[in-house]
Amino acid sequence: MSKSTSENDRSPRFRSVPETAEILGMSEVTLYRAIREGQFPAVKVRGRYVVPSRALDDMEAAAMATGAVVDAAEHAVTKVA
User: Fold this and answer.
1) Cα-Cα end-to-end distance for the chain
2) Residue 76 dihedral angles phi and psi, to the nearest 5°
């Protein structure tokens, strides 16, 4: 069974940290550090982090709508004990 054209044209729901770092023009080490410190939104499955594409889209939209700097830490949700 093949996927429909609309499914093939969609961007992935999650991106790897290296891919996200490249999109943002920053080093992977810096992005991993921000994720571990709760300053960048990510999902951790066992030892692997992935970044929701929607988080990137939302931050971009906020920056474009306000014309101001968007703090990624405001989009990150930290785990409550």
Assistant:
1) 44
2) -90, 135
